[in-house]
Design a protein that fits this description.
By secondary structure, this protein is an all-alpha fold. It has helices at residues 2-8, 13-46, 50-65, 68-78, 80-100, 105-123, 125-135, 140-169, 172-193, 210-218, 236-241, 243-272, 277-301, 307-327, 331-360, 365-394, 398-417. The longest helix has 34 residues, at 13-46.
């Protein structure tokens, strides 16, 4: 019965991808990138110190990842759809509070840093990636790549749009109404369109029937490459005891520690090399644009070769970004730094969930990644601060570059050694 139904129905997975793309775009772009714009004006008007503004963004980033184990547990028990709905509601509530309730520094930190941060955590990365892994197997990397481009586009659209609202109305409160409206739209799309897994509507991953799947397996010789996907039933405990899980985590740390320093100190470093502030600032837009291309490229390459090789190659490109930033003396160096950083990060960003889910299965992905997410978040949050400390101690970014290149190399080696795990 399920076979016949899945053959007659149009595969719903790509509708899921479109729905998740819009949700991810709204729930990341407006509170995160838009919030950076609005909070600056809001803090100046209320007389908040810049240290409070910086602390709010640090808390916002931390609280996206710190509840990772709770997010993973929630998804396992209630489903990703429930998690996205909860996150969207928290973003909606925090946006209304930011616009009309927040009057003090402590409430500013609580509302934006904690409530909005937790909302983005529950409403984006883990549930979105989990849903993609449930709906796709052989086509997972392509679907994941398309979905994850949403955050890049969010950076392009949200900040300029809210700036226009601010300049047009003269009131930053109206910007938070736009953020609230975006969260409400994300909530409605989630409740109406998102299904946790194919079996909920009588379909199977990738949209292929069981007979078609068997036929594909029998014709392996005619297929140039079939992406690896474990057939074992892993538990979170078993995965955490396996060395390949920790190699994957090392590769992730080898991505985030370098990337966070490159984007947080890139403009200042380019300025030290004599590049104008306007030209240096353009590098961030270029990184965002090329990261979108990198995600799509990474997704396609993972369909043609093992994801660990794609990840290692992407980290090599990211390492080149560090080298070009160290040596940049003009526009060409700045462009090479931005392009390598964007492509290297974008492709790696896709490889991470693809490797975790294909090695240990879609069934435990939310719990496994949710458990490790706080480690990744803490490491990425510490990187810019540590780089700043090393600069203050030495008067140059040399020590910081040595640090991130070392982590980059560790990530590359970890990726190359990270062959598919064998369940004991």
């Amino acid at each position: 019965m399920i076979n016949n139904t899945s053959e007659k129905k149009r595969f719903y997975g790509w509708t899921i991808v479109v729905s998740l793309w819009i949700i991810y775009f709204l729930n990341v772009g407006f509170p995160m990138y838009g919030g950076q714009t609005v909070n600056t004006f809001m803090a100046d008007e209320m007389g908040f110190k810049r240290t409070i503004l910086g602390l709010a963004f640090s808390l916002f980033n931390l609280f996206q990842g710190l509840p990772g184990p709770i997010i993973g547990y929630t998804i396992q028990k209630k489903g990703a759809r429930f998690s996205i709905a909860l996150g969207s509601i928290l973003i909606l509530v925090s946006a209304i509070m930011m616009g009309y309730v927040v009057k003090s520094q402590w409430l500013f930190l609580l509302t934006f840093g904690v409530i909005a941060g937790v909302g983005v955590g529950f409403g984006t990365v883990v549930p979105v990636q989990t849903t993609v892994t449930q709906w796709f197997d052989r086509k997972r990397s392509r679907a994941m790549a398309i979905t994850l481009t949403a955050s890049g586009f969010g950076g392009f659209v949200a900040a300029p749009l809210l700036t226009k609202v601010l300049s047009g109305t003269g009131k930053w409160n109206n910007c938070w109404l736009v953020v609230a409206a975006a969260a409400l739209i994300a909530l409605l799309i989630d409740l109406i369109m998102v299904k946790n897994k194919p079996a909920d509507i009588g379909q199977i991953p990738d949209g292929t029937s069981f007979s078609e799947e068997k036929e594909t397996k029998s014709n392996k010789k005619a297929v140039s490459y079939i992406p690896y996907s474990t057939k074992d039933e892993w538990t979170v405990k078993e995965a955490l005891k396996n060395s390949k899980c920790w190699l994957t985590l090392l590769a992730a740390i080898g991505l985030y520690i370098p990337y966070m320093m490159l984007i947080s100190h890139g403009i200042a470093c380019l300025g030290d090399h004599g590049i104008s502030a306007a030209t240096a600032a353009f590098s961030i837009s270029l990184i965002t644009a090329t990261s979108i291309a990198g995600r799509l490229l990474g997704g396609e390459l993972c369909n043609r070769m093992p994801a660990r090789f794609v990840w290692a190659g992407s980290l090599v490109v990211l390492l080149l970004g560090s080298v070009f930033l160290m040596t940049a003396t003009g526009v060409v160096g700045m462009v090479l730094y931005a392009v390598c950083t964007g492509i290297g990060f974008g492709a790696s960003f896709v490889c991470m969930p693809v490797v975790f889910s294909s090695y240990f299965g879609a069934k435990i992905y939310s719990r496994l990644f949710g458990t490790l997410f706080p480690i990744i978040t803490i490491c990425s949050s510490i990187s810019p601060t540590l780089a700043r400390y090393l600069f203050d101690a030495s008067g140059s970014y040399t020590s910081g570059f040595i640090m991130i290149i070392a982590f980059n190399v560790i990530g590359i080696v970890a990726s190359l050694l990270n062959t598919p795990p064998q369940k004991q």
